[in-house]
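TA notes, week 10

Several of you asked for a full example with nothing omitted. So below is the full record: structure tokens for the whole chain, then the designed sequence directly under it. When grading your own attempts, check the secondary structure regions first.
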């Protein structure tokens, strides 16, 4: 595709898919972003010519996509739980499969309950925003080690008018106060093994490495979450963790070894093990780490 001749919407999309090899949906998302119109506009006005500036912007985005940059970073937004969320390279791109984590949380949180919920490693704030949008009486804490990620989450919460989410900076439980108790703690932590070849594919090199990998087997952060969570849970509180498809048995074992009750793994719509949950141990052996900044 060249910028020499003005193209119509239909012609631009055709060249993007046939010449550049872009998927049709991705081409539509990028062109709608350039035009600042919904995708339906592309169908309604296929013969509309692009201006020179619009065509140049579209070409630039196509070039970046060809190099592997994810569409969400090109547009700056990603839909999650029917919410339009700002994303940047400082945050992990929310995945549709993580909506199962939200579904599980909502099943444990009654709509009329003022439960206290902590979303650890919130990134763009997708999980916290989804829960807050469905449970307006709940009080949420969204934490992240990255100040840049928290800034993105803050923008999303403000845009969605979600005023019952408190943002805190810190590594995992460092952001929670000594003696603080939650009814539910949940996280989509890093769980890919360091050196895994998948980290070099599917746009992952563009995403923050600290949000993806965690130790030789990918379980370092999950171990810490399971070990430390019971000190911050109410007696009947729950911990929910998303993990890799092949990690369910190992994660369940970690839950059970730590004494969690009613430990179960849930599958996504593709019948792949996606998350594991457990209720706080009856006898809490975990202690609030003394060297944390609280």
């Amino acid at each position: 595709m060249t910028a020499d001749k003005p193209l119509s919407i239909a012609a631009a999309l055709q060249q993007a898919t046939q010449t550049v090899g872009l998927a049709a949906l991705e081409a539509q998302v990028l062109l709608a972003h350039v035009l600042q119109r919904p995708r339906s506009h592309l169908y309604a006005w296929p013969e509309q010519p692009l201006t020179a500036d619009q065509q140049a912007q579209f070409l630039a985005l196509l070039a970046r996509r060809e190099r592997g940059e994810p569409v969400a970073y090109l547009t700056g937004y990603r839909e999650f739980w029917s919410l339009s969320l700002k994303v940047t390279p400082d945050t992990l791109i929310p995945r549709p499969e993580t909506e199962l984590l939200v579904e599980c949380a909502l099943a444990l949180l009654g709509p009329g309950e003022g439960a206290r919920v902590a979303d650890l490693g919130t990134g763009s704030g997708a999980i916290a925003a989804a829960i807050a949008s469905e449970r307006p009486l709940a009080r949420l804490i969204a934490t992240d080690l990255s100040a840049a990620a928290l800034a993105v989450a803050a923008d999303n919460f403000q845009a969605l008018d979600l005023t019952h989410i408190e943002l805190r900076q810190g590594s995992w439980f460092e952001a929670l106060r000594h003696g603080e108790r939650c009814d539910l703690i949940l996280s989509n932590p890093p769980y890919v093994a360091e050196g895994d070849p998948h980290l070099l594919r599917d746009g992952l090199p563009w995403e923050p490495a600290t949000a993806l990998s965690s130790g030789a087997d990918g379980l370092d952060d999950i171990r810490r979450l399971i070990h430390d969570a019971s000190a911050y849970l109410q007696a009947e509180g729950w911990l929910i963790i998303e993990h890799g498809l092949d990690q369910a048995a190992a994660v369940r074992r970690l839950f059970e070894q730590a004494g969690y009750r009613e430990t179960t793994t849930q599958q996504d719509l593709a019948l792949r093990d996606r998350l594991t949950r457990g209720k706080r141990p009856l006898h809490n052996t975990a202690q609030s780490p003394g060297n944390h900044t609280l």
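Confidence is low (pLDDT under 50) at residues 288-294. Use that as a sanity check on your answer.
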